[in-house]
Design brief:
The chain has 3 helices and 4 strands. By secondary structure, it is of the alpha+beta class. α1 packs across α3.
Amino acid sequence: MTILLEITPVPKPRQTRADKWKKRPAVMRYRAFADELRLKLPRDVDLNGRSVEFTFKMPKSWSRTKKAQMDGTPHLQTPDLDNTLKALIDAHLSDDSGIWSLAGLTKRWGYRGSIRIW
């Protein structure tokens, strides 16, 4: 079963106590991502043994030619794969100690941001 979430992935930011009243953009982006993910990804979906592919939207400033060349290629820039995965797991699960196996993780460029779980 493949789950395709039309959500632009974001990394998990390092948060402090001050983030409860300080509205830092990175934290607000993560919270919006987490809220949207909770709405779209059913709670009963078990991530163990699954593969996850994060697709990052290409910048508007890139030409059509460059976008065509980069579509589907590995995303080798920040955010890091581990921070993006942490955002997904922390938003989906209240206790992530139950994650013991992931089959594969990838991070790619695409025309739209998405998360694919299979």
